[in-house]
Design goal:
The structure holds two protein chains of two kinds. Chain A contains five helices and twelve strands. Chain A has helices spanning 12-45, 55-71, 122-126, 154-161, 199-202; strands at residues 49-50, 53-54, 107-112, 118-121, 130-138, 144-153, 183-187, 194-198, 208-213, 216-217, 227-229, 244-248. In chain A, 37% of the residues are buried. Chain A starts with 11 loop residues before the first helix and ends in a 19-residue tail after the last strand. By secondary structure, chain A is of the alpha+beta class. Chain B is mainly alpha-helical. Chain B has helices at 10-35, 55-61, 67-95, 98-101, 107-118, 133-157, 163-168, 172-200, 202-210, 218-222, and strands at residues 2-6, 41-44, 47-51, 212-216. In chain B, a hairpin with a 2-residue loop joins strand 2 and strand 3. Classes of the chains: A alpha+beta, B mainly alpha.
């Protein structure tokens, strides 16, 4: 819509007339734009669903994720003094934790795309160097808690047992990144709850397999006998009661990402 | 005699009107997110005066069980909100419009006079200017609020990657409170803004659509 840039200083009837002309034009432009906006909104809200979201929104989450990944990598989450931990850890999310669990008989099944399955008992995992950290756990619902986690670095776990690589050697993300599978899929023993992780987040030095929270052995509700703890992602990625770990190159399914949430969930 | 005068540049009008639905979408999707952990309330002397928000509010606006949807819309339209706001600031700086918008040394006194005038406590007419002191404060303040919304929003969106920002804003929980309080601020701004637009009348509103205003000639005013 061309706008007269240098109008002579119109007065009186001429001004009124010009104002009417301008009004007609601007209000029509406004009405057409508003209609176009409404149309765009209808298109967006009724677009085909992808992971329970209109696909353009899903695409935007992917875009944000890629931007986030390229801007920040492997930054360490802030840690806190032990005294910052207050009260018992909040319980949230019971999916996949219904059955009683026998820690002595518990087996961690480990799969690699195109290779025979392995199983490890709790004792084998607990032979790894023990790590403790106090970090802020953040739930996507909007609450957070400073919590103490103790267990084993996921990276140490892969290194000791030669997991996550095509060669079966210890991972070497710097020297031999091609040897690593791109993704990790973790699930409860019954696979009722499952998460997908990018390898970089899995190898993050603060990513732990925990058997202790707030100086207490894990309870069933908190994911005994072994749970995941991620400091770089929202809580729904910190799988409780890990029963299955699979290394693969396709982006794995994810319980909440299939229900409209962000797959990456980095924060 | 009326004279036709240019008032709002086209870029400002477009950005203003784009911001209106976008901010509405941001507040709506923000409420979907807030519902999932709606812990804020106003307490005075241990008594809860108001809980954000009562059940009827969520039900009336259909805001329950929409966290995932809310985040998807929020993190999409945040781009539009941020880019539109950035372009607006850039435009006002480059075009010189900032001269009419930023507070100056007369602003505090003038703003007080506007308040007295609007509350009908002061009879003297306000000086004729594109934006009076109260408007300068309001329109500059709301831009600062927008910038703060972006910053507090980023602090709760990426509290680990932007840990320094989250720390500066008082931590994750406080940044969320601040982000929420700013939203309440927009709603208050909106209420005052709309009532002032209604008071100012059609000629003023039309200027935000057309860019032009009919102004009474000086001679007429003094007559």
């Amino acid at each position: 819509m061309p706008e007269p840039k240098k109008l002579p200083p119109l007065t009186g009837a001429a001004a009124e007339q010009q104002m009417r002309r301008l009004s007609r034009r601007s209000f029509v432009t406004g009405a057409v734009s508003a209609a176009a906006g409404l149309g765009a909104w209808r298109w967006l809200t009724t677009a085909n669903l992808e992971g329970d979201l209109p696909w353009p929104l899903r695409r935007m989450l992917r875009f944000n994720e890629e931007l986030g990944e390229s801007l920040f990598s492997s930054r360490l989450a802030p840690t806190f003094p032990n005294s910052s931990v207050q009260g018992p850890a909040r319980v949230n999310g019971p999916i996949g934790l219904d059955a009683e669990v026998d820690a002595a008989a518990w087996q961690l099944r480990i799969q690699h795309a195109g290779r025979a399955e392995r199983a490890l008992g709790l004792k084998a995992v607990q032979g790894l160097p023990r790590i403790e950290q106090v970090t802020e756990f953040k739930c996507v619902e909007g609450w957070s808690e400073v919590m103490h986690f103790a267990g084993f670095r996921f990276l140490d776990f892969l290194t000791k047992f030669g997991l996550g690589t095509r060669s079966g050697q210890a991972p070497d993300p710097v020297g031999n990144p091609q040897d690593l599978y791109r993704y990790v899929y973790l699930a409860t023993p019954d696979e009722e709850y499952y998460v997908g992780l990018d390898m970089a987040s899995a190898l993050h030095p603060q990513t732990l397999l925990c058997d202790t929270m707030n100086w207490e052995p894990l309870t069933r509700q908190h994911g005994a006998p072994l749970r995941l703890c991620l400091t770089v992602k929202y809580g729904y990625k910190s799988l409780k009661r890990v029963g299955l770990i699979r290394f693969q190159d396709e982006r794995p399914g994810d319980y909440w990402a299939e229900r409209g949430y962000d797959w990456y969930a980095g924060h | 005699m009326n004279r036709l005068e240019r008032k709002h540049p086209r870029a400002v009008r477009w950005m203003h009107w784009i911001n209106f639905p976008v901010l509405t979408i941001m507040i709506w999707s923000g409420l979907l997110i807030y519902w999932a952990n709606d812990v804020y309330e106003i307490n005075v002397g241990g008594r809860t005066l108001f809980h954000f928000f009562p059940d009827w509010f969520y039900q009336a606006l259909n805001l329950e069980h929409g966290l995932a949807e809310g985040m998807a819309y929020h993190f999409t339209f945040a781009w539009v909100f941020g880019i539109n706001g950035f372009l607006y600031v850039l435009y006002t700086l480059l075009s010189g419009e900032w001269r009419y918008l930023l507070p100056n040394r007369h602003t505090p006194r003038e703003a007080w006079e506007v308040v007295l005038h609007d509350l009908k406590l002061r009879k003297t007419p306000l000086p004729k200017a594109k934006f009076n002191g109260a408007q300068r404060l309001a329109y500059t303040g709301v831009i600062l609020m927008g910038a703060l919304s972006l910053l507090t929003g980023l602090a709760i969106y990426k509290p680990t990657q932007l840990a320094w920002l989250t720390f500066l804003l008082g931590g994750y929980a406080w940044a969320r409170v601040e982000h929420f309080a700013l939203t309440i601020g927009y709603v208050l701004f909106f209420v005052i803004h709309i009532s002032q637009v209604i008071r100012a009348g059609w000629n003023n509103f039309r200027a935000m659509v057309t860019g032009y205003e009919l102004v009474a000639e000086e001679a007429k005013v003094n007559a």
